[in-house]
Amino acid sequence: MMLNLFSSRPDHPLGDPKELKRAIVELPPDNSFKAVDEVYGWFESLQQADGFRVDHLYDVVRQLDEAVQSHLRRLSRDYLHSPRLSKNEERRLWSICYNYWGEVSSLYARCIERAKSNPKEKGSETLKSSLPLAATRLLAARAAQLKWVEYRYGPIGEDLWRGLGQPYLAAEVAGYATQPVQIYPGQAGLTSVAQQYLQALIFDSSSMGSLMPIEIDLADRLIAHFQPHFVFSKNCLPDSVYWVDAASGLPPTRLARQPDQLTQTLRFFSPGNVPQALNELTRIVERGDVPADLNLGGEYPATMLLPVLRHLALYWAPEPPQREHPRHAVKTRIAVLQGFDDCFTAFAGNVARLGKERTAESWVVENVSLGGFGASVDDLGGEWLRIGALICMHPEGGENWVLGVVRRYNKDSEKHASVGIQSLSKHAASIELRPRTAGFSATGAIPGIWLRENNSPGEARVVLPPGSFDVRTSLEFVHDNRSYLLAPIELEETGSSFEIGHYREHVAD
Fold first, then answer.
1. Which pTM was predicted?
2. 7-33 confidence digits (pLDDT tens)
3. Which has fewest Cβ within 10 Å: 153, 394, 417, 433?
4. Which domains can be identified in the chain, with CATH numbers?
5. Which of helix, strand or coil describes residue 7?
6. What is the dihedral of CA 323, 328, 329, 332, to 10 degrees?
7. Residue 347 contacts by C-beta under 8 Å, 6 or more apart in sequence?
8. Pick from 493, 509, 456, 448: which is nearest to 475 by CA?
9. Helix pair angle (158-174, 131-151), 10° resolution
10. Which residues, in sequence order, are CB contacts of 465 under 8 Å at separation 6+?
11. Residue 409: in which H helix or E strand, if any?
């Protein structure tokens, strides 16, 4: 052990190997938040500590970091999978995880910089063999910060991109950027500084702003699965798709826009043959199978994995995805109501709508297309706005409400965001549906929003409250004195407060 090599101890409790061991042993096994918070507190104190030989400091940080990895995974699962987290608890979990990765990356960076600045010190020479692991953990920690920012659709600052690119370049110069290491005990597989940097680049290039947080995590794990097959190069190859200046604070960019100048710090990457492998995996999952060797961090149904695979296929294609409809720049305000209940009320008629209109939020539409809107939101006081939110919109000066779903969400700051909205219907109607069982109508009514356009002949789509669609149950309703019978085909989509059922439509004579 490194700790046995020291003849003197720094003026810090963890300078004593026995105290370090005690601090680790006493971490609460059944309270992950407290365990991570305690280690975070130790990290904060180590930032101010003097007298540590650099290899000693690294060993303390390394052991504390390893001690809480299982707790960090548990907090991440709680954040992504707990269905009834309050907003305060969500912020609490997000903050402790994001801040932890920032603090530990800073300490690894400090150790590496000290060893580089004072190579003749005894501690620097001892640390030399551990630098590949220290740098790999540094890159992995900052890549984790990148992911946690995306969970909240926040802006990625230049500091974070520099914090990823510059250590990678330094590792290249030092000759260990591609040296494989086992990043944490018990973690399968090997990785390297270069692989962790490429992971972050692919992640950012895969348009996470149109995925929900749990889908972002799945996408990150799929990136790790396919990442060894991506092509990463100092040179622009014929099949290169993206470039990045690793020394700058800028994210990767499609080669549709060329670099302003060629520099030694430019790097290029492409999916290589990954699209073919991704298509093969998609076909397997479409059959309902999820391969056992696919590490997703848990068990997920094929229906949850498929949208993520299809999303990645778009952004890993040699050609970028083309917009289905051209955008047109505009500047107009829209009134916005959210959630199934408010949307149902908005399409139920003028009298029912009057009270709701007074509570509507005001957004600025910046562009429109046949498929939807791009809007700017100046006040993010409401916590409901997220990918998959059902909304209805009333354009200023317009005559009708439009039903839509938030498909893209990017926060520019804590108070401002840009959203992309897919239009579901410009002529929706609120209806009351009754389940039809054994030829008799049931008594309980189910509210629905009938999407009256963009349907195949003889078919219908209806927005329903969560958990209302049943593939075994037909529904009937009356609209404009005509009776309709809906025979279920499939559940088309599930959102944050709604689901869309796809039906065969029969109109009574």
1. 0.81
2. 456 889 999 999 999 999 999 999 999
3. 394
4. 2-206 (1.20.190), 328-425 (2.40.10.220), 429-507 (2.40.10)
5. coil
6. -110
7. 392, 401, 403, 428, 429, 430, 449
8. 448
9. 160
10. 340, 446, 447, 497, 498, 499
11. strand 402-411
